[in-house]
Write a structure and sequence with these properties.
about 375 residues, Phosphorylase Kinase, domain 1, 11 helices, transferase
Length: about 375
């Protein structure tokens, strides 16, 4: 993540997968996930309520952080798996390039604490506290089991398979989190929505994370800071225009493409030329043939060049419900035939069927 001062994409955090899938159980991730989602819905609510009751405060002594392992690192700092007061947590320790009290790093840290500390939603990572002990500044949050990016990598390496239902659930969870942000007063712009910032719990629920670039937008306020991760940045941000919450909807449209095409966007594009192509040539990721038209249309509406033509997250949630009704929900694809042939056979046979689930074993590469 970062402000786009150039078109070189900043290094992102790479979070390890803990419990998704291993080589010995590399069957259909979707099947196990759906069982968990159906049978553990109450557990998800219960766990969320338990987390709501845990709060360590804003001045946790750094000595109370028991670091166990490094989960990932980026330009902003490093993320650890740790224990705090006997609870297993994630700890993000920021890098201080400037140690003065007016450091922009400290201002960004304070901004993220301010935002996270007031957000309460089941699809947003739970904020548990902070360390503000110079030079140790840390955010403490719940620990998830990986990210959507990890999930996509597992699919690529054939250690997991996904289903329409699971990916629709992830898309819906993300949309719910963003809808919540955009209905606050003042609204919150996330400004860095991407697969890497969507965490997955052990119950296969999606939680939006990393609010380091997020900002509140007061009524009639002007936002035009060029921030975000280049491949997910809306054209109006590149142009330096005044922008609104619609920039998050653009980024969400790119995430939808990642979820349903299982690829990283714009791999064939020169990063230096990408902003020009997005702004002046209306470049968008190529649509995948196996995706239902309703999802194609949703993606295209989300990344529409005119922000006013993009749907709200409330509308997106309704469109996802419509997509769920139009996507096959129960049929497993025969793995003895090629993926493309299976999809073609499936579409010919069930083009007008609704109410079932399809597992799609992916062969396409990723990253």
């Amino acid at each position: 993540m970062g402000c786009v001062g150039s078109t070189v994409e900043p290094q992102g955090i790479s979070v390890e997968t803990h419990k998704f899938v291993n080589a010995n159980n590399a069957g259909t991730l979707a099947n196990s996930a759906r069982v968990k989602l159906k049978t553990k819905a109450d557990d998800f609510v219960t766990e969320s309520r338990k987390l709501d009751s845990i709060y360590f405060g804003l001045n946790v002594p750094f000595k109370e952080i028991d670091v166990r392992s490094t989960l990932g690192a980026g330009n902003f700092g490093v993320v650890y798996e740790a224990y705090c007061k006997g609870k297993r947590v994630a700890v993000k320790k920021i890098y201080l390039r400037d140690t003065s009290e007016k450091s922009s790093d400290l201002q960004d840290f304070a901004q993220e604490v301010d935002i996270l500390s007031v957000l309460i939603h089941p699809n947003i990572v739970h904020f548990l506290g902070a360390v503000q002990e110079h030079p140790n500044y840390c955010l403490i949050t719940e620990l998830c089991e990986g990210s959507v990016l990890d999930l996509l990598k597992l699919v690529e390496s054939k250690k997991a398979r996904a289903t329409w239902g699971l990916t629709l659930d992830i898309a819906a969870d993300c949309a719910s989190a963003c809808h919540y942000l955009h209905t606050l007063n003042p609204i919150i712009l996330h400004r860095d929505i991407k697969a890497e910032n969507l965490l997955i719990t052990e119950l296969f629920r999606c939680k939006l994370s990393d609010f380091g670039l997020s900002r509140s937008l007061e009524k009639d306020a002007i936002a035009n800071t060029v921030c975000g991760t280049p491949r997910w940045v809306a054209p109006e941000v590149y142009r330096g225009d005044v922008y609104s919450e619609k920039i998050d909807i653009y980024s969400y449209g790119i995430v939808l493409w990642e979820l349903f095409c299982f690829k990283k966007p714009y791999l064939d594009q020169d990063p230096i030329n990408l902003p020009y192509m997005v702004v002046h040539k209306n470049l968008r990721p190529p649509l995948c043939a196996h995706i239902p038209e309703v999802l194609h249309n949703l993606m295209k509406s989300c990344w529409h060049p005119d922000p006013s033509q993009r749907p709200s997250f409330e509308e997106i949630r309704s469109l996802l419900d419509e997509a769920r009704q139009k996507v096959i929900l129960t049929l497993s694809i025969d793995t003895t035939v090629s993926y493309d042939d299976a999809v073609a056979q499936f579409n010919r046979k069930h083009s007008n069927t609704s109410g079932m689930r399809v597992g799609f074993g992916l062969k396409s590469g990723l990253m």
